[in-house]
Design a protein that fits this description.
Length: 141
């Protein structure tokens, strides 16, 4: 396994079926110093989440196979047995914030994703952002 010089680099799982939105999410997350893995639907997201490698999930709502709401519910039900809780941020084009939160998601962002709201949403979960953000932003900009 390669040694990552950013030893505290966080891994974000992006569940999104649109190639354009996938590229947007990858670009923004990498700018902010995150490592990114993309999956195309909720079923793939469940499989990826089960590896335990991810520090947070960005979850599209409308996806084939399994939508974001069902996926979030399924993750929260599984977590209830283990005690861990992965932060999930809904990314939505609809005004369905309540539905996202009641499905167990922690926050929501409007499409199209924008740099600052995304950074702030994730910073809520990761305390290192507060002190290391400057150096990470510099490194990746
Ligand atoms: Mg979609």
């Amino acid at each position: 396994m390669m040694i990552d010089p950013l030893h505290d680099r966080r891994h974000i799982l992006v569940a999104e079926d649109s190639p354009i939105n996938q590229q947007l999410a990858i670009g923004l997350l990498q700018q902010h110093g995150y490592s990114v893995t993309v999956v195309n639907n909720g079923r793939e997201a469940l499989g990826a989440w089960r590896t335990g490698r991810f520090d947070a999930i960005l979850m599209d709502i409308d996806m084939p196979e399994m939508d974001g709401l069902s996926t979030a519910r399924c993750i929260r039900e599984s977590e209830a047995d283990h005690g861990n809780r992965v932060p999930i941020v809904a990314v939505t084009s609809n005004d369905n914030a309540d539905e996202c939160l009641s499905a167990g998601m922690d926050a929501y962002l409007a499409k199209p994703l924008r740099s600052d709201p995304l950074r702030h949403a994730l910073a809520e979960f990761f305390s290192w952002n507060k002190c290391d953000e400057g150096s990470k932003t510099a490194r990746f900009s």
